Each structure stands twice: as structure tokens, then as C-alpha cells.
């Protein structure tokens, strides 16, 4: 259980921070930037939820919880030492990826295939979901870059890849099942 009774600690005043395993690193370290961008994704999901209801809101709530799991996973390097930790280390799982895939398939089943790219917009919820999509794509790029230098849980990479797809399909659902999508017209303003 997490207990947060003092919010500031002054330990980061010199420009470093602690990872989940206690190692201190620069606040601009790629791992910190990656899980910080996952946190940013969670924040924009919170904004999207202001416009969501029913199943969409429930699914976004699960995604927010998953994003906290993902941040916990990324802030704890050295996966090989998980067994030595003495307590379970939280890692993303393929089950979380599978759930996103099932939800994408269910939502996509209600949509007509696209014949053009979609511009971000339409309803307020769709616009926010597009912002979620782009921020999660940035988080994915950072995590993939981190994985070229350090060990990263592959389920975390897969989750972020599916998540941006989830946001795209959900944005179409939020636009009256795609009927209110704003379509790109190539060269329209020449």
C-alpha cells in the first residue's frame, strides 16, 4: 500500500530523482522521460473522461489504471533482478494487451471502413481521444528508444502500441460511430 503523507521531499532539488529500485538518476534521463510521458498520457485521458460516459468512461478508467501500472513497470529497471526483490514487482502483462485488442475489435465492428485519413476533431470527446492517441504515440517512441539501451518489458511496448490504436478507434466511436468523422481532403486548399 502506498502512503503519501508528505508530498515534497527536497531530494530532487539537485536535478535527480529515484527510480523504483532506489537508484538515483537525472530527471532528464530517458527512462524518467518515458514514464513521465506515460503520466502525461494518463492526464489527457482524464480530460477525455470529462466528455465520456457509460462503457467508454469505464474503459478509459481501466486504461488510466493500466497507465499507472505501466509507469510502475518503467520506473523499475533490471527485470532480471525481479526474483531477488523479495516482493512482487509490478509489470505489464500480455493480458492487458489482449483486453485492449478485444475492445478495439468490438468497437471497430460498429464502424464502416475508412476511405480517407481522419483529422482530429468532430465531437469534444473525439478531439480529446485524438490528443490521447498522439501523446501515447510519443510515449511509445520514448519507450522503444529506451528499449534499445536498457531492458524493457515487451508487454509494456505492446501495450502502448495497441493503446494508440484503441484511442483512434474510440475517437471514431465518439464521432457517432464514424458518421461525424472529419475526413482529410488531400490538397483541398491549394
From TrEMBL:
E.C. no: 2.5.1.17
Enzyme class name: transferase
Pathway entry: Cofactor biosynthesis; adenosylcobalamin biosynthesis; adenosylcobalamin from cob(II)yrinate a,c-diamide: step 2/7
Family: Belongs to the Cob(I)alamin adenosyltransferase family.
Keyword hit for DNA-binding: no
Record keywords, A-Z: ATP-binding, Cobalamin biosynthesis, Cytoplasm, Nucleotide-binding, Transferase
Catalysed conversion reaction: 2 cob(II)alamin + reduced [electron-transfer flavoprotein] + 2 ATP = 2 adenosylcob(III)alamin + 2 triphosphate + oxidized [electron-transfer flavoprotein] + 3 H(+); 2 cob(II)yrinate a,c diamide + reduced [electron-transfer flavoprotein] + 2 ATP = 2 adenosylcob(III)yrinate a,c-diamide + 2 triphosphate + oxidized [electron-transfer flavoprotein] + 3 H(+)
InterPro entries to which the protein is assigned, alphabetical: CblAdoTrfase-like (IPR016030), CblAdoTrfase-like_sf (IPR036451), PduO-typ (IPR029499)
SUPFAM superfamilies xref list: Cobalamin adenosyltransferase-like (SSF89028)
Record's protein name: Corrinoid adenosyltransferase
Subcellular location, record wording: Cytoplasm
Domain Cobalamin adenosyltransferase-like stretches: 7-173
Domain of life: Bacteria
Predominant cellular place of this UniProt entry's protein: cytoplasm
GO cellular component: cytoplasm
UniProt-listed GO biological process terms: cobalamin biosynthetic process
Keyword ATP-binding: yes
GO function term, MF aspect, one: ATP binding
